[in-house]
Amino acid sequence: MLKITTPLSEETIKSLKVGDSVLLSGRIVTARDAAHKLMVEEKPDFIREYLKDAVIYHCGPVVKQDSKGEWSFVSAGPTTSSREEPYQSTVIGEYGVRAVIGKGGMGPKTLAGLKEHGAVYLHAIGGSGSVTASRVKKVEKVFMMEEFGTPEAFWVIDVEDFPVIVTMDAHGNSLHANILEQSEKVYKDLIK
Amino acid sequence: MDLKSQILEMIRLSSTNLSTDVEEAIKAAASNEEEGSPAKNALNTIIENIALARSQSTPICQDTGALIFYVDYKAGEHEKVYIDAIGEAVKEATAKQYLRPNAVDPITGKNSGNNTGTNAPYIHFHQWDKDYTRIRFMQKGGGCENCGTQYRLPDITLGAGRDLKGVRKCIIDAIYNAQGQGCAPGIIGVGIGGDRALSHILAKEQLFRKMGERHMDPEIAALEENVLKDINKLGIGPMGFGGKTTALEVFIGYQHRHPATFYVSIAYMCWANRRKSMTIKNGEVTYA
Lengths: 192, 288
Fold this sequence. Notes:
Structural class of chain B: alpha+beta
Distance between the termini of chain A: 42 Å
Number of strands of chain B: 9
Oligomer: heterodimer
Radius of gyration of chain A: 16 Å
Structural class of chain A: alpha/beta
């Protein structure tokens, strides 16, 4: 099992290959639909320092605030990434993001963006909200919570040994494209 | 305990304590995948997650879904009693982090923050002649809901006619198109017939069936078994990583249709098939 920690260098990212199991530690930032739309349309600067050489996580967590106002993550698995396909490549380039975590994989536009900017797509296990939340050690900050609500806000968090699998690498390879191609052959045979 | 608290407990159970029939099916699938494969690793993480969620009483998945209730009530009872109790239970479950706030105004984009709003939660009411009340609850994740679809037969592209062979092609097509997006391995509800809306409702209601519970019509039961085998030949696998288990179950229901229409609706449920029921008889509550 490979271990990587943020900030991530381009060299580290390029050493990762489709199929690698990875434990990720360090800073990641949750961002989903509203956040991606904002990052492309308005390019806000408040999130810039948190994304440089760091990681975007497609996740809308269940969160808890204690009596002192401290936040923690209760359940925090990945959400479906394909909804960010129109935005992802632009966001990676604009903010210098090195990895995107989500589920379900992404399409050709993102795959090209990963190659161009030296980044990877990491697949977390969908639905494993409790296990994933247990790897979140600290909630550093939250942005846009009032405007977007808790699932859509930018949560800046520190994780330790967050388990993921590389399914799209920085060299143009995609497990999702491979599975689609293989299953298409069976599919065509089944519905003949 | 009052009705609100009883419903709150059902929500907690559903969100944090996966029904054992589903858990057993996932364990069986894991034992069937190759050692060290991404498919096996994914299922093992899922199994670990189910146990952790149960022991901590935290949501199995952070997407605690669209909240759908089905109330079968006794003659003479008032729906408002259930509407109020369910509304309050949902708000409290959200405050206790059993549920994520998942009700968003589609015009303003504002999240209500407590899971209530127009048709949220949605409650199906049905008055029946039994001497007890039954409330069923389903949490339908958004990612898998996006994999649901509806076909209008005949379908030229698929070469699907108005018969069970055509229905079979629709099911296979829907699961192929979903790939890993719906958090495979999925549980597939199918509704044949009805108008467009009823067809979807019937498909979704199939998801309440116990794993392994076959349709009473032997022809449909055989189709359920055979199409499940076919789906699992696709090789999409858990999370779309490749593997032998793309779906855990196929449940088909049918109802009469208009002569001019033939709809086949697909409800895709993620592996985290969260549904519970409670019955209330003489004030005594039983959960299942």
